[in-house]
Structure to design on (919 residues):
């Protein structure tokens, strides 16, 4: 044990045992002592009490001075601790002072009773009193103080203290009970302190455990709340159910409710009741673990989805079957699953409607990792056959397109770019579909190309519609061509009449030349050669007209645009003539070829030239010059322009001239430029008009140059 | 002059038609010259022989009808045979009014063309003849003295010698002498002949 003579017993301990209150009580006791001291002083001096008492109790009558001194010391012994209480920071020091004061009364009582030995017992009362603090040090302090007092008085003023006079043996005899008392009180104090400490430690431990348990329960409840999982205990034999807080919350019952199987079934969705009942019955019967999903129908009409799992535990006698289980509210998960399923359904539906199948495949190794239902349909694959292999994917590509398709993909992999390729698909039954294949590269965090994702669109319908549209456009162009040719009938007749006139004249000349005795055979030969030439010429005109009147699907062939211009100029020469229009041509030499349909491009030029002639019909004396130019426009286009010197157009009309049925001609249908524009646009070109700086209008079109037939 | 071989001018911008026509015309023994445009034709000086012009209505630049107009305005009297790829009635009317001999749509029968050419040449030839006769007559008329001219106009108006003498204040005898000289100078064989000459001179205005 650590010998500590000065420090307070630990404050918490003192507070717990409420020592301050004991201190206050001690002050009261001191003042009672003071009162008794005064009584004793009066009785021993003024009242001469000893004279009235029988011998054993008769003691010396005290002088008034002695009694007064005793009373003053008694007053100080009560007053000093009273006054300094609360002013001494260390309460233990105060308790030492208080103990000293109490002891002082012991001496005073003995003194004021004239040394009556019985008054010694007050000292034991003091010892007993101060054990209230369970601090042995106080007892020993009192003991040491008293011992000093005895020794000092024994040798200084023995008569003053002791009734019997000085007695060394008596002093020694005093020591035994006093020391015993001290020892016993010490033991008592130590024991009491130990007991209190033990009890306190036990309390603290209990508090700690309680706190830990509470924490753990809080955690568990919180965990249950967060995971929407409540726990359940079910004693089958008694039918007792134990629910955790979360279970109550899930079932929507008040905590005060006693849970029963009936309540469970009551909450269960009516449609699920049978299966729940069945599951619980079987669990009871077989004593086996169980799990099931079912729904709850809550009073507010909402539906919850539960996942219930029960683990069977049986005691040794195999009598008391008990299930411990968990109830999880999986409503959110179910809803998420439902939402996902719905979104997948929508996506599949959207893919089905747009004929767009999505896919994803890894680069190394080439492996398809995703294929939507629609992709199976587009490729004519069996969805039950698992993911198609990359080779299967390729096999579906039309053999004629396969090399190009593979090249495109390899290039995209090499250049890490998007894939965008049109190709055909051949199904095993021979059906051919048109597909548009687009893909996007996917890179890993380290920047490596790992995957391509994209879709294959079945554009067969669109392709067919495009073909149909092209066919209709071709028909319309044809009708327009026939109409234009109708307008040109007179000029065309002239074009044919010219060679016919020459043929007839030459033939007649031959007849006459041969009708003379010595015919000029050279002249006859020349005439016959001319006849042949003119016949060819007439034939060529007819062939051109027939070509223009022919209704053939448009084709894309490499063309020299200058030849096309020449063809048309041959055809309209008479018309130009008729209207006194002079054509100036500036045809670029060595122009790249363009890809197009000869007849349709002739039609466009025919329209532009006839429009130019028409525009200049009313310009009076000025020269009617139509300038036709062809030139390269950059590297990839050829530009053809037809420039007239007519009156031009009214402001704003330039915007309208390409609209169908817009015409400035009295007899025009207004389809020429509209059809011309659609023809040029079908050639991936552009047709537009710009007013000239001085007068007239320039209409021009650009055509892409011919490149090797690609896809 | 009348015996000079006639020439046919062909103006057609289509070379094969022009060549064929030239060949055809030559096959009937006529001379033919071909021109591509009206301007070309106008630039070339024509020989003073009976001629006709085979003209295509549609020509680049100055058209056939315009050329005809210009010729009339310039007093270049050459009969015109029009040929055309496609003629319409107003065009035909205009050509005929301006004195065209014929208006032939292409292709035409050779006989029609050749007939028209022959007719035109005959017309030109007779016109030339008339113009030559007129010229001689006028020269003869201009060889008369002023007094003889007066006497010629009065005699030609049908006045008897006596009345002419009274009008001019001369003797009848003097008038007779003038008449005889007039008859000689004018190479008239009889009085009616002289009267006819006077009529011709009156109907044709003097070129001067």
């Amino acid at each position: 044990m650590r010998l500590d003579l000065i420090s307070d017993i630990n404050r918490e301990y003192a507070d717990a045992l409420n020592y301050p209150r004991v201190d206050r009580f001690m002050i009261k006791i001191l003042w009672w002592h003071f009162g008794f001291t005064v009584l004793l002083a009066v009785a021993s001096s003024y009242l001469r009490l000893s004279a009235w008492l029988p011998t054993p109790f008769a003691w010396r009558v005290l002088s008034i001075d002695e009694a007064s001194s005793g009373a003053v010391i008694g007053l100080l012994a009560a007053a000093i601790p009273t006054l300094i209480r609360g002013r001494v920071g260390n309460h233990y020091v105060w308790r030492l002072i208080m103990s000293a004061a109490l002891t002082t009364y012991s001496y005073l009582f003995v003194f004021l009773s004239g040394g009556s030995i019985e008054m010694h017992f007050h000292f034991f009362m003091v010892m007993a009193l101060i054990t209230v603090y369970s601090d042995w040090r106080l007892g020993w302090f009192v003991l040491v103080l008293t011992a000093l007092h005895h020794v000092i008085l024994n040798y200084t003023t023995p008569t003053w203290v002791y009734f019997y006079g000085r007695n060394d043996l008596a002093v020694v005899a005093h020591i035994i009970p006093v020391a015993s008392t001290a020892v016993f009180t010490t033991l008592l104090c130590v024991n009491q302190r130990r007991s209190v400490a033990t009890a306190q430690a036990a309390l603290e431990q209990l508090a700690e455990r309680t706190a830990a348990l509470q924490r753990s329960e809080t955690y568990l409840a919180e965990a249950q709340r967060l995971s929407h999982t409540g726990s359940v205990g079910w004693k089958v034999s008694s039918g007792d159910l134990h629910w955790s807080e979360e279970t109550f919350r899930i079932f929507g019952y008040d905590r005060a409710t006693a849970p029963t199987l009936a309540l469970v079934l009551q909450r269960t969705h009516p449609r699920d009741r049978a299966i729940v009942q069945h599951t619980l019955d079987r669990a009871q019967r077989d004593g086996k673990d169980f799990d099931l999903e079912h729904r709850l129908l809550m009073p507010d009409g909402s539906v919850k989805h539960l996942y219930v799992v029960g683990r069977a535990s049986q005691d040794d006698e195999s009598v008391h079957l008990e299930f411990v289980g968990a109830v999880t509210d999986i409503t959110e998960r179910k809803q998420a699953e439902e939402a996902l399923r719905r979104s997948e359904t929508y996506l599949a539906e959207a893919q089905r409607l747009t004929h767009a199948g999505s896919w994803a495949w890894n680069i190394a190794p080439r492996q398809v990792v995703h294929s939507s239902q629609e992709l199976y349909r587009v490729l004519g694959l069996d969805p039950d056959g698992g993911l198609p292999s990359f080779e299967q994917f390729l096999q579906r590509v039309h053999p004629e397109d396969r090399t190009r398709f593979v090249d495109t993909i390899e290039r995209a992999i090499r250049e890490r770019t998007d894939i965008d390729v049109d190709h055909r698909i051949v199904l095993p039954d021979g059906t051919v579909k048109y597909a548009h294949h687009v893909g996007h590269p996917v890179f890993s965090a380290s920047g490596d190309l790992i995957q391509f994702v994209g879709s294959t669109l079945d554009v067969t319908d669109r392709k067919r519609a495009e073909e149909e549209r092209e066919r209709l456009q071709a028909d319309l162009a044809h009708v327009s061509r026939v109409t234009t040719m109708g307008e040109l009938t007179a000029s065309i007749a002239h074009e044919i009449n010219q060679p016919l006139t020459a043929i007839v004249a030459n033939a007649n000349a031959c007849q006459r030349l041969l009708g003379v005795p010595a015919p000029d055979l050279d002249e006859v030969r020349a005439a016959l050669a001319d006849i042949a030439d003119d016949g060819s010429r007439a034939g060529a005109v007819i062939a051109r007209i027939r070509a223009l009147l022919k209704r053939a699907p448009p084709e894309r062939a490499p063309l020299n645009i200058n030849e096309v211009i020449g063809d048309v100029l041959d055809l309209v020469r008479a018309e130009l003539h008729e209207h006194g229009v002079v054509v100036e041509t500036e045809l670029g030499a060595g122009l790249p070829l363009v890809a197009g349909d000869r007849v349709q491009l002739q039609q466009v030029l025919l329209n532009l030239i006839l429009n130019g002639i028409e525009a200049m019909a009313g310009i009076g004396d000025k020269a009617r010059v139509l300038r036709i130019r062809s030139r390269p426009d950059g590297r990839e286009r050829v530009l053809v322009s037809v420039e007239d010197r007519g009156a031009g157009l009214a402001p704003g009309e330039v915007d309208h001239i390409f609209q169908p049925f817009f015409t400035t001609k009295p007899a025009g249908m207004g389809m020429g430029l509209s059809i011309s524009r659609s023809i040029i646009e079908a050639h991936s070109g552009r047709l537009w008009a710009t007013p000239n700086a001085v007068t007239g209008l320039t209409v021009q079109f650009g055509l892409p140059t011919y490149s090797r037939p690609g896809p | 002059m009348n015996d000079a071989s006639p020439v046919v001018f062909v103006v057609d911008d289509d070379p094969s038609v022009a060549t064929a026509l030239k060949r055809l015309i030559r096959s009937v023994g006529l001379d033919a010259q071909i021109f591509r445009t009206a301007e070309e034709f106008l630039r070339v000086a024509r020989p003073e022989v009976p001629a006709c012009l085979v003209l295509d209505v549609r020509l680049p630049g100055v058209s056939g009808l315009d050329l005809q107009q210009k010729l009339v305005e310039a007093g270049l009297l050459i009969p015109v045979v029009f040929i055309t790829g496609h003629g319409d009635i107003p065009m035909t009317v205009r050509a005929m009014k301006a004195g065209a001999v014929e208006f032939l749509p292409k292709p035409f029968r050779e006989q029609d063309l050749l007939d028209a050419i022959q007719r035109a040449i005959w017309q030109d030839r007779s016109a030339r003849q008339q113009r030559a006769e007129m010229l001689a007559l006028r020269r003869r008329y201009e060889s008369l003295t002023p007094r003889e001219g007066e006497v010629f106009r009065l005699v030609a108006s049908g006045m008897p010698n006596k009345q002419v003498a009274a009008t001019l204040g001369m003797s009848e005898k003097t008038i007779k002498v003038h008449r005889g000289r007039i008859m000689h100078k004018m190479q008239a064989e009889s009085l009616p002949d002289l009267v006819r000459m006077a009529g011709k001179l009156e109907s044709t205005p003097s070129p001067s």
